[in-house]
Every structure is written in structure tokens, then in C-alpha cells.
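call fold(seq) -> C-alpha cells
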Amino acid sequence: MDSPYSPLEFSLLNDWQRDFPIVAQPFAELGRKVGAGETAVLAALERLQARGAISRAGAVLAPRRIGASTLAALAAPAAEIERIAALVSARPEVNHNYQREHRFNLWFVATAADQATLDNALRAIERETGCAVISLPLEQEYHIDLGFDLKSAHKHHAKLPGTPAREPDAAEKALIAALQPGLELVSRPFARLGERAGMSEDEVLARIAGWLDEGLIKRFGIVVRHHELGYRANAMVVFDLPDAEVDRIGLQLAAEPGVTLCYRRTRRLPDWPYNLYCMVHGRSREDAQPVIDRLAAMAGAAATVLFSTRRFKQCGARYFAEMAASGDQANGPSDA
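ret:
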């Protein structure tokens, strides 16, 4: 099938989801590497962003290193799903919000500067929606990447060394807040970040390079939107495994082609007994099903599969709310 993207657009989408140049003029450096000028690179990224193919060029922070985050779910009455989803999406703490095929039919990710702020946000969602929320915090990640190889099966990358959680200082919080929406598509985006965060371009570059080295930033590059790139079947596959076995099995499943996320989360008994999660993204349900079947066979346990049916919101995480969103946009309802 012919690609809907030009060779330059395809290269930016596929080859630069990580290892983005952390230099004063990164788009010019990208141009040198792909055989195009800075102006052409910026124009291509603007087109991709306008088409919804990319969320942003920027950082993906490693989980559980700063602030607080959780995956949460609620059971919305079918007749009220859109109203309730709109209330959830309106919360600045919420960055992903999907309808899935289950009694718990609305699933969202929320982040905040600290656990108390996150807890307050979840309680506010319960008050506003009238629905009880189950919170399922991450306990152990086995594979979290969400990079997509458009040429073949999803790549798996070397695991970064574990970085202990820590409280960012005031300067770091200001820079993270400025960085959350992504880089501005200008010649010197790190200088713009510095203007917004109150530091020099050189200091911005040094801090970001340091965060990459220590693993606070998991990857820095083009963040794509899987649905717009043709990965329209998004399945959350969950297992109820013995606690003594979950780490061993989780590491095995994490290495399987087609698995984009794999992690252990807290159970919420009696309503939610599952502790191991795999995300499978396929171009169709028929494409995803063999991966799901293989995972269930390897786990030696029944898989509960929650395909998404609508995406209400997808944007980068916002740990620090003082930075107004400018790069990622909330989506209206769409097929997920």
C-alpha cells in the first residue's frame, strides 16, 4: 500500500521518535541527517501536526520519577457516556481518556504534581460525574515505550536504568512545565523554552541532556498518534496472575512483538482483580487477535480484553499546571 506521507514526512515519523538532537538548532540538525533543509523539516512537521499524525516533538517522561500518576476507570451509564467523558476530559490532570468495551467503560490517565493533588482530582471527578472511580497506580513497568515502527513489527528498545523518584527543584519544575506541550516549531526551540522557564538556552540544553542521561526523560523525539497512523485497534489485555509469578510472566510478555506497553498495577478487589496489563495496537482487530492469543498462551491464564471504541482525549502528561497547553490538543470523540 502506498504511503500517504512524503519520504521526508515518513522519515520524521518513523526514524525520529527518539534520539532527537539536543542542540541549539535541532531542526537544522535533523535536516542534515535526512537530507533536507531546516525550513523543509519545520514545514513537514507542521503538516503532520495539522493532520493529527503527531502529537508533538518533545519529551516523554519516565513513569514514577516525578509527581504522581494513575490509570483510572469508572462505569458510566451508556446513555450518559459522552456527557461524563466530557467532564473527565475537562480536567487538566487527565491526559488520556478512552471508552472501552467493559462494564468499566471509561478509562483515563491522570497526572499531578503530587499524590494529594491527584487524589483531589479523582475525588472531584467522582463528584462531578456521580460515578465511583477505581484508581490503578503503576507498581512495576516491564516495557513502556509506545514508539511505532511503521515498516515492521514494533521495535523494543534497551531498558533505561531505574531512576529513583525525586522532587524537582523550582527551576526544574519551571522547565518541565514549559516542556510539557512540546517544542515550538521554530529554529531555536530550546531558546524559546528558556524564555518561558526563566533560564538560558545553554542551561535548558544541559538540563535536558542530563535528564536523558539519568533516565528522567524516557525518550525525546517525535510523539506520534497511533490511530492516525493506522493502528486503529487498541486493546488493553489484562490478566489475574499469582503475585509470585507476575514479574516473571510480565517480563516474558513485554518482549513479545506487538506489545507496546506491559506493566503491573494495583488490584482493586472485588471489582477489578487484574494485576498484569499489556497494550496491543494493531491495524485491525484481526491483526491484534493473534498477538492477544499468544499472550494468553504464554501467561497460562485467561485474558480479559478491553478494546477501545472511542478516544475522547489524548495529549501529553501535565504534571505542573502552571504551564498552559499549547502543543497537544484534546481530541473530540473519535474511533480509537
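Residues 115-129 form the longest helix (15 residues).
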